[in-house]
Amino acid sequence: GSLAALLVCRLTGRPLRDPVIAADGNTYERQALAARLRQGSCQSPATGQTLHGGAVRPNFAVRDLLSALCV
Asked: If both were cysteines, with which of 29, 37, 62, 66 could 9 make a disulfide (CB 3.0 to 4.6 Å apart)?
């Protein structure tokens, strides 16, 4: 896929602004993933794997890339 396709949230289909890494190793938009977890969904939208604890980490690499590309 293209670089632009990699910089899109799998939940919203929109460009990432505040990318986070979930327990499944995939990157999502922070607010979209938080909303999904608040609704009680504990499954990864990408893999179906359980997202234990709902912990996320900032994805600094993607954030830096977005900044460098001025997206």
From this structure: 29
